[in-house]
Design brief:
The chain is of the alpha/beta class. It has helices at about 25-30, 40-50, 75-80, 95, 110-125, 190-205, 235, 245-255, and strands spanning about 5-10, 20, 60, 65, 70-75, 85-90, 100-105, 130-135, 140-145, 155-160, 170, 215. The strands form 3 sheets. A 6-stranded mixed β-sheet has the order 1-10-11-9-7-8, covered by helices on one side. Strands 2-5-4-3 form a 4-stranded antiparallel β-sheet. A two-stranded antiparallel sheet has the order 6-12.
Length: about 260
Amino acid sequence: MKFFKISVCIAVAFLAVQCNDDVENSIEEIQEVQPQEVSEEILNKLKTIGFNVSDIPVTSTKGGVVVERDIFIPYSNLEETNFNKQAFLSLMSCQNSRDVKIKNDLGDNAAGKALNAAILRWNSINSSILNIRTVTSGQDITIRLDGGRLATNTYGQGSFPSSGKPGATIDINLDASASVINNGGVLTQAQWVNVITHEIGHNIGLLHIEQASFGTQIATTVTDDPRSIMRIDTRDIVGLTRLTTNDRTAVRTMYSEFNNSLCK
């Protein structure tokens, strides 16, 4: 992902983003089309959503654009102006949400020490059945050092639920840095609490709020939450001290005891 943005592993296809075997043109057909110029407006919107438009060329094709080589986005999706409503890509089952087990493989460092505080943020949501705890074995999620898998300006990367289970991994890059955060220095423990809270949000299903049009929007949430923990830009979240009402409402709607809970 681009400069100081939090990355996330997204499943083979977004709900509203079609991969190439789901669209009119196959990858082979798209590659045969002569590249057309993509407007600056479209590029800026893709950048806002979180796609890499600097390192991987965006190709214009019939009805939309192809980003990151194999993701087709219809122009109709890009006309969507509300990217700030909370949304999820996939959900855990209600049963699995009651006991989400995380193994801490980060070690004795600022991020490793931040995990429990991050878990507490999600566990403190009233009227939600979501419960997360740390374990030494039998984990659903492993939070680990990235081992060089992430870019130098990417702090963390989560994964989405699959088959009713939480996303299986969270990678953390202890050495990540951006000149606009701590003057290019590493994150403090308090800042890692926010990054890890954000990544856990992905593992329980939440999208970046700027990417809401690619998932299932949660009707009970508001359309403008500038202090949500699920904002895509690390600068927006490192100074936070709590989840917003909107963050809490989203999880309460996804995982609750009530009949209108979205989990099954």
